């Protein structure tokens, strides 16, 4: 695996931010603020955006809202190849329709979970990815067995890659050992960091990109951290990583959307409220995110 950053021929590489979706107080989507947020991320060193991921609360959006979020991201990004929509859905047919929409919009890739309401066996998983890949747009697999109960093991990922169904994987398990096995079994499959709090470990293991949460609040610092990490510049990367880790680990917790939106509010971005069933952070959780964010700002991160 190489550590090249964003390229037009492999647009899923580099720092691809899983964007939080700004809501107004009445919980309608604020598309103008979202467009400004996309531009802000790209202006501050990030390579692209991933709308309609779990951080973008896609499960709470209507189909009309979800389609419009993709259009907003494409228009704001300037280059549609920098947009990797999440196309997860309960059925393969619906996921394929979202992939078709992304292809028509000129997006560079899509991010696809395995079937997420059905504990699919290997044959069903392979059929699901093959079906969506027929949209003709590069598919990045998303391995999150914690939430989906379907584990895209290194062996299964290698078979999906050999099928021609996927070009990369967002690895969220936090098990760094998998990186080396994936590289052995599928050397041409791009490994993308899927959880913020194993960034340094997966970068040194050969990751080609980062589907990232916390750059929503700290884009410039997170982009600098990623570039130092993949370049093997531990002198630069390790102090940054240590400084940000109290925040980065929230990306792997249940309340990651609320945590990142709170940090955005504290850094001058518009995070705003989340839609139910997510409730605002309170008590110890809110205090911890607030303190870690304020410390990061005091440390000069932005």
Automatic annotation (TrEMBL):
Gene3D superfamilies: Aldolase class I (3.20.20.70). PANTHER family: DIHYDRODIPICOLINATE SYNTHASE (PTHR12128). Belongs to the DapA family. Pfam families: DHDPS. It comes from the Bacteria. The keyword RNA-binding does not apply. InterPro entries: Aldolase_TIM (IPR013785), DapA-like (IPR002220). This is Dihydrodipicolinate synthase family protein. Keywords: Lyase. The keyword Lyase applies.
């Amino acid at each position: 695996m190489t550590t090249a950053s964003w390229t037009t021929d492999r647009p899923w590489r580099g720092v691809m931010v899983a964007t939080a979706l700004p809501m107004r107080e009445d919980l309608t989507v604020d598309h103008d603020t979202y467009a400004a947020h996309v531009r802000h991320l790209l202006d501050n060193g990030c390579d692209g955006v991933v709308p309609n991921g779990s951080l973008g609360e896609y499960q709470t959006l209507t189909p009309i809202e979800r389609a419009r979020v993709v259009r907003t991201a494409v228009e704001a990004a300037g280059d549609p190849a920098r947009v990797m929509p999440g196309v997860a859905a309960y059925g393969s047919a619906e996921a394929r329709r979202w992939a078709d929409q992304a292809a028509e919009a000129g997006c560079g890739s899509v991010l696809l979970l395995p079937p997420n309401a059905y504990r699919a066996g290997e044959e069903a998983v392979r059929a699901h990815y093959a079906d969506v890949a027929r949209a003709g747009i590069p598919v990045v697999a998303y391995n999150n067995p914690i939430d989906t109960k379907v584990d895209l093991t290194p062996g299964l990922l290698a078979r999906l890659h050999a099928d021609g169904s996927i070009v990369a994987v967002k690895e969220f398990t936090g098990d760094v050992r998998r990186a080396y096995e994936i590289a052995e079994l599928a050397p041409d499959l791009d490994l993308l960091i899927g959880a913020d709090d194993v960034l340094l470990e997966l970068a040194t293991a050969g990751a080609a990109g980062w589907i990232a949460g916390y750059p929503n609040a700290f884009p410039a610092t997170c982009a600098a951290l990623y570039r130092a990490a993949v370049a093997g510049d531990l002198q630069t990367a390790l102090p940054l990583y240590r400084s940000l880790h109290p925040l980065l680990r929230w990306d792997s917790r249940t309340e990651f959307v609320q945590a990142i939106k709170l940090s955005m509010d504290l850094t001058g971005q518009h995070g705003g409220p989340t839609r139910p069933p997510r409730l605002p952070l309170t008590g110890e959780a809110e205090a911890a995110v607030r303190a870690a964010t304020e410390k990061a700002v005091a440390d000069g991160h932005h």
